Amino acid sequence: MKTLFMIMLTCNVLSATFARGANGRDGLNYSKRISGQAQPKLAVGGIYYVTATFLNLRKQPVAEGPIVQMFSKNTELKIINIYNKNWVLVSYTSEDVIVEGYVSKWYLFEKK
Predict the structure, then answer these.
(1) Which of 16, 35, 93, 104 falls between 20 and 30 A from 55, CA-CA?
(2) Rounded CA gap, 65 and 52, in Å?
(3) In this predicted structure, what is the pLDDT of residue 40?
(4) Which tens digits make up the pLDDT trace of 75-89?
(5) What CATH number does residue 49 fall under?
(6) Which residues 6+ apart lie within 8 Å of 37 measured at CB?
(7) In a domain, 11, yes or no
(8) 52 near 73, Cβ under 8 Å?
(9) Is the pTM here over 0.85, yes or no?
């Protein structure tokens, strides 16, 4: 199964085909969550950074939602709204273009 997943990644770079990682979570490469890990404390209006190698920005707050864009590690995102215990609505600005969508809050951190 792992080998098949890697072949799909190689053949479909940056396509929705590999939107779910081998672990079934949003994105591709994740930091391992520790059992009992506290939920990240996020604030509306705050600036946060992506911890995953790649993180999918989705149109809806579900892992099966259409992918709008992919972000790489350390991409800066602004939280617009906290949707639920797993998803946040964020905005990303690049060259005067603002993109909005949902990401899993488990892969965001605040630089200090």
Answers:
(1) 35
(2) 18
(3) 66
(4) 999 999 999 999 999
(5) 2.30.30.40
(6) none
(7) no
(8) yes
(9) no
